[in-house]
Amino acid sequence: MITFAIGLSIILLIVVLFLLFRIGTLASIFRGSSQRASGTTKTSNKVNSALLLLFLFVGGAAFFWSFARYWDEMNQPLASVHGEWTDSLFWTTMIVIGIVFVLTQILLFVYSYKYQHQDNKRAYYYPHNNKIEIVWTLIPAVVMALLVFAGWKTWTKITSAAPEDAVVIEVVGKQFNWIVRYPGADGKLGVADYKLIDAVNELGVDFSDPNAQDDFMPMQLHVPKGKPVLLKIRARDVIHSVFMPHFRLKMDAVPGMPTKFWFVPTETTNDMRSKTGNPDFNYELACTEICGRGHFAMRFIVVVDEPEDYEEWVAQQKSFVDQNPDILAKFSNPSQERLVMSKEAEKAEEIKSEL
Amino acid sequence: MSSADISIHKDVHHAHDEHDHHHDQNFFEKYIFSQDHKVIGKQFLFMGILWAFIGGFLSILFRLQLGWPEATFTFLEPILGGWIENGKLNPEFYLAMVTMHGTIMVFFVLTAGLSGTFFNFLIPLQIGARDMASGFMNMLSFWFFFLASVILFISLFLDSGPAGGGWTVYPPLSALPQAIEGSKSGMTLWLIAMALFIVSQLLGGVNYITTVINLRTKGMSMTKMPLTIWSFFLTAILGLLSFPVLFSAALLLIFDRSFGTSFYLSDIYIAGEALANTGGSPILFQHLFWFLGHPEVYIVILPSFGMVSEVISTNARKPIFGYRAMIGSLLGIALLSFVVWAHHMFVTGMNPFLGSVFMFLTLIIAVPSAVKVFNWLATLWRGNIRFTAAMMFSIGFVSLFIAGGLTGIILGNSSLDIHLHDTYFVIAHFHLVMGAAAFFGMFTGVYHWFPKMFGRMMDEKLGYIHFWLTFVAVYLVFMPMHYLGIAGFPRRYYSWTTFDSFSMFGDLNAFISIAAIIGFGAQFIFLFNFIYSIFKGRRASMNPWHSNTLEWTTPPLPGHGNWPGEIPAVYRWPYDYSKPGAAEDYIPQTVPFSETQSSNLPHEKDLE
Fold it and tell me: CATH 3.90.230.10: does it fit domain A167-324?
């Protein structure tokens, strides 16, 4: 019944609108405005040009108001060294384009209002002026050159090689969560091979590698404040992207192609909790490359510690091998492993010969 | 050279004259399998409008989810069936809708719908030709597009859903059916549809280029062509050079999906199994995709540049300012569009040095784009502006193009792109600069050339209402998205509530969704106006806008062959508006200088 009532009222509304439209059309024929050349009728010119000007003022005011209103929310708390560079470059560029935006929009709408059609007027025949063209080609060219230069300098600094003493952490994306691996006391990550992956050994670490013995995989990503941290990024299945908004950090995780990104955190989680006044504040790691059903839920907690707290935390972590002693059994007998491999190879060859 | 051309033209005229006299076409030849460029143009327009409503409707569906993530959508069950699970939208279907919205809008509406309509309709009419160089190829172009449309449409109704890996269909996600439902048969149909679509584009492109080069009427030198034709011509070249690259990318993806090759796949463990594929590179696909993908955004926007230039000049009653600078900037943008593709890939792990190079090349594009905007503004200056519906949309276009184009300067900067890549800042940027702006270009074209297409006028007042609702809605939807983007809200997220960092802006998202619904609703005003005016609109005169270009010298509803008699010759450029000394404020291209002695400029005296 309600659906019927809604349907009926919609139909009635459409009928009323249609009748209004017909009346308007007939009235314009009666007034003779349809006899004039299109776009020269007085009322529609006045109304439209006034609305354009109104749009400029109201729209502009709404823009500035909303910008100020949401200023605090749109600026995520910042916690990395390179983030300071990119943030300042971002807002510098925003000011430059903001000025151009305001000027050009004002000219567009004010000209539209000012030069609306008048019967007794004629437009000014002004087909070209090469001097002006050169001027307004050169000005954006120079501004662009400056912005490119600033961007290029920042970019080379950010993407330069990580310092030797950087803390190395592996971050691996999979459907639909992140796994991190620390190199342990030896500072070296053991080699990994995607063919070794199973339900326990989710990263396919080769535990016959001595470097892998002390690797550990915690449930949170801890990094020390003020020290360079190098993320070695991999993906297991499809492309993911490591995004840590507070560190202004993003790098794709690509299957078959390891990537990396290094940064220096500047504020600990506790610093940030008192700074933002939010006792539950957490740094987060999100995925920004579409990866399937759970793309929106690949949340991982990032914790920035004071260097000494970080050392303490690392010392507390148990290596993966300690936690899963059974895992070594798989790697204890390399010859057996090889036998299996060669059998597989044989199978593959059989298939080939069949084909 | 020119004499040879003329003799060819004469032959063509004869053939057509005979054709007209001796052969009555039946219904199918005239309206379905037509080889007439005007009918084909309208076919593209109808398909484009149909697709635009489907694509727009999808966006409303996912805006409902984003605006009210906690709400239940049981009322959508009659439409979506199994995709609503316990009142909740299925997250994979959400991704599929995002994907199809992008594919439909970019390719099927703003490429085929926009180029297909106006290139076909306007090129012969504005250069003074009886038809396209090959009417048959032109017809094939439409029917390949139609076939692609049917296949893509069918994919919407598959059990496993349509393609769901984003409109960029990056492998391995799009290559592995285990990874997402959308990579099952939905993706297969997507690839087939795109392959057919590319065939359609290439058949059309060859035709457009050939027609512009060979079939211009007497006197229509390249420097007397309207800017519309210049932009169409360059767009067709872009398409012809870049679409084959997408074809090869799609072909290799088909091989990876169906024949076990490893072009894009390497070292993958998925669904409890390590795949044998090794040595491929997912990045290779991205390079190939964006080698088309970037020129593609200019394929979408260049035709609008042309049409807007034409409409602004006509309705400001002023010559377009800097005609040659406009052509030069079109050429510059077209050329540069081929060497900036990797700015979509700054954070893919590509060598940082490449990032620097592509940043430099990308930011250069801002220069010719700025020149265009300044020229449009200079054209309005001291004009005598007639606010037709088409003109309103042109002004809206310039405003949106500025708003969206400027943020490109930020995104093209690789160090700023680190934070903003794949966030709503990107969504806001490209929707303004090539989505909404290209739609405004399309509306400009429809309102302006409707009289020539259907012999009747569209209702101007409804046009104004349509314009204002759409214009305001576009800004209300996309301006706030910048704020979300600066805060880092990632795109293609089913909901943001899982993250503390993205827990704010719930109100803003609901606001955006409401604005989107209003904007979508406003399009039904256009639809009504469009259909009603085809049948009941006021009859159009031959030249209702007092415009200079050649198409307005044809009868209100041009028949097969366009001009009843001889094709008119061209004597002057198309922008002699408000020339001092002339009786009217416009002098059509077909008026020789000998008839306008009172208004001729000193250097034109020799041409009398």
Answer: no
| One-letter identity of residue B165 | G
B252 alpha-carbon distance from chain centroid: 26
Report the predicted TM-score, pTM, of the whole model to 2 decimal places. 0.92
DSSP secondary structure letter of residue A33: G
Which ranges of B68-116 would DSSP assign to H, the alpha helix? 77-80, 91-103
Amino acid at B334: A
Q: State the Cα–Cα distance between residues A126 and A123, nearest whole angstrom.
A: 9
Contact A74 B355 (CB under 8 A): no
Query: Is A245 in Cβ contact with B487 (below 8 Å)?
Result: yes
DSSP reduced 3-state for B70:
coil
CA B175, distance to chain mean position in Å, is: 28
The domain segmentation of chain B, as residue ranges, is 406-538, 541-608
Structure tokens at B362: 């990308």
Q: Which helix (H) or strand (E) holds B607?
A: none
CA distance B535 to chain A (A): 14
**Domain segments of chain A as ranges:** 167-324
Rounded Cα distance, B3 and A140, in Å: 44
How far is the alpha carbon of A213 from chain B, nearest alpha carbon, in Å?
23
ipTM of the complex: 0.92
Cβ neighbourhood burial of B283 (10 Å; 0-12, 13-18, 19+): buried
CB A281, CB A76: distance < 8 Å: no
Distance of CA B320 to the CA centre of its chain: 22
pLDDT tens, residue by residue, B143-179: 999 999 999 999 999 999 999 999 999 999 999 999 9
Of A108, A123, A255, the CB nearest to B172: A255
Nearest to B490 by CA among A296, A254, A293, A240: A296
Helix (H) or strand (E) holding A12: helix A2-31
Distance of alpha carbon B128 from alpha carbon B226, whole angstroms: 12
User: How far apart (Å, rounded) are the C-alpha atoms in residues B491 and B66?
Assistant: 11
B90: amino acid identity, one letter: N
